[in-house]
């Protein structure tokens, strides 16, 4: 099947673009000896895990189901972090994961012995209280009152026996300069205990595959921890794995006017691209311009009842008409993993495009997928 023959709406992951990102990440691994693992919270199309496994070291999970997915479908290193673990799940999590990272000393005291008795590695998440983001408090793990990680004020070094490594995650779509600033804070506050650790995990949020990212500075940061403390360094990016490697194809269903031109499409910001509303941001649309840049400007909206189900304002070289197909870019990350069936919206099909340009539908969804979630 060719791209233009796909049903809409459809997510499409482009294998050559995905592999391009993986080669960049693998280059960092080869030059530094660090380990990079896929954060499945951003991207979990496990049909592509065999390709990912050729370049990366494993997976990172946020809970039991992601831990199972990484264990079953990747089969390499498997790390997990959760703000708090359930007693009825912790034994299975330990059986599936190599590194179990705790968010607090109370969780470490509660479950740490189980981890060590199973021969697995216990880690502790720290909070260096170093905010490097502007205007994205929702995505800042170091914001005041954050529930993530142990601050220096509440650090209890007498409980570190059996802890193999420290973990921090402070970034969101950021460059290596933010990582370098964070490392300064980590060393200032927690450097005293780094020599007794085996590893350190830099978490995610590293935009390593974005054009212009300073890979040399990233590698300097990695070597800094290796040379000063003899630590094995982990990174667990999510976005960087599939950045700009996916698309969402949609069809114009109707056009109307209300102070401006409006087009209703068969995909929903609320259901199929929720970060558009949560971040918020305007996703790239191939062949379009910003509002007013080209002759014809339209507001694109979804078919749900939510008034705010608006994808954004775009301009075009010609008027839109019913049946036109539009293609949104960068739709592999935080899309399939976050979509929903609000209003009974059908989920988009999931397709993979190979290096010859052929597309195969990996999964299609229907009414049963909606109904079986509800009773």
> How many strand elements?
17
Strand content: 15-25%
Gap between N and C termini: 35 Å
Helix fraction bin: 25-40%
Integer-rounded radius of gyration: 22 Å
User: How are helices and strands ordered from N to C?
Assistant: EHEHEHEHEHEEHEHEHEEHHEEEEEEH
Please state the average pLDDT score: 97
Query: Which structural class fits the helix and strand makeup?
Result: alpha/beta
The parts where pLDDT drops under 50 for at least 5 residues are none
Total DSSP helices: 11
Largest sheet features: 9 strands, mixed
Shape assignment: globular
Topology of this structure?
Layout: E1 10-14, H1 15-32, E2 35-39, H2 49-55, E3 58-61, H3 64-73, E4 77-81, H4 90-96, E5 99-102, H5 105-117, E6 121-125, E7 163-167, H6 176-190, E8 199-201, H7 215-229, E9 232-235, H8 239-242, E10 246-257, E11 261-265, H9 269-272, H10 275-278, E12 289-290, E13 296-301, E14 310-316, E15 325-329, E16 349-353, E17 359-363, H11 367-371
Parallel strand pairs: 1-16, 2-3, 2-9, 3-4, 4-5, 5-6, 6-7, 7-8, 8-9, 11-13
Antiparallel strand pairs: 1-10, 10-11, 10-15, 12-14, 13-14, 16-17
Helix pairs in contact: 3-4, 6-7
Give structural notes.
The longest helix is centred in the first third of the chain and has 18 residues, at 15-32. The radius of gyration is 22 Å and the shape is globular. Helices cover 27% and strands 23% of the residues. Strands 1, 10, 11, 12, 13, 14, 15, 16 and 17 form a nine-stranded mixed beta sheet that branches. The two termini are 35 Å apart. It has helices spanning 15-32, 49-55, 64-73, 90-96, 105-117, 176-190, 215-229, 239-242, 269-272, 275-278, 367-371, and strands at residues 10-14, 35-39, 58-61, 77-81, 99-102, 121-125, 163-167, 199-201, 232-235, 246-257, 261-265, 289-290, 296-301, 310-316, 325-329, 349-353, 359-363. It is built from eleven helices and 17 strands. The protein is of the alpha/beta class and 375 residues long. The mean pLDDT is 97. α3 packs parallel to α4 and α6 (176-190) packs parallel to α7.
